[in-house]
């Protein structure tokens, strides 16, 4: 067996084992018992040009069995019919006219929170939707069981409709793993923050932390808000949203997908614990090494090397599929050629580093954001 093939096999096997330690599990909310009586809930939805995406969320809110809530859609300088659509679903529309530095999602959320009547606040991204009619009951019941303190945040389950959307698979895995709390050590590392699309907290803790007003300049508001709560010794709990909340990321096209992930990864890796980051790097490297071992063994025509490398490649494909399907309904067949997903992730990550450290800016929804 050529030495290069043996080295690739060893690194690939080590990375495969590290992968299981890196992403041990993704807990989701269980159904809670007891009566569905909770404090008045204010649902705050920041929305900028979301006319094509916000209707499923508003419809899912209308279908909830639990009804003691208000819906505040904060129109963040939209130029489409976002506000009109929100009103059709009975939501209260607040206009966020801030033009100063810091306007955007955080300013919109802060504006919504200031106008909220509820004792509990639920911040939802406009591209999310509740999975069924009991989702709110399950979410609020889980928060109450955890003492109704700090933040309970969920990463929605990613629903894929068009083929190019599968390119988000590895990004979804890394975003979740990068929160530090889904390894075999669970709570050994502090969470990197909170998941942004679905954040539930009580109003007293929110204003005590400074809320979104404290993080008005942050590119990744979700991580920054979670840290603001942690700075006040308030708990931040992160879980998977499977069975409770879904979302569809970047349905507008590949360009939007690139801009969105570029924004997220330009600064997001700074919050991941070095040990977790090392495991992520090794796991991604192993993905390339397992593919390289298979290609090298085919070229060398060595039966033993070919058998071992084929086994490793298949194991890596299976593990990558397992991790991705925890995050969304990604195409199973695509993982037979999973190195393409790793190559796209690596290329876009390098591009995000270029934008962050050379251009010092990223683009999102028509805005240039300094980083």
TrEMBL record:
Gene3D superfamilies: Spore Coat Polysaccharide Biosynthesis Protein SpsA, Chain A (3.90.550.10)
Keyword annotations of the record: Carotenoid biosynthesis, Cell membrane, Glycosyltransferase, Membrane, Transferase, Transmembrane, Transmembrane helix
Membrane spanning residue stretches: 167-185, 275-298, 304-323, 335-354
Predominant cellular place of this UniProt entry's protein: membrane
Source organism: Cohnella hashimotonis
Superkingdom classification of source: Bacteria
Protein name per UniProt: 4,4'-diaponeurosporenoate glycosyltransferase
Record keyword Transmembrane helix present: yes
Name of a matching Pfam family: Glycos_transf_2
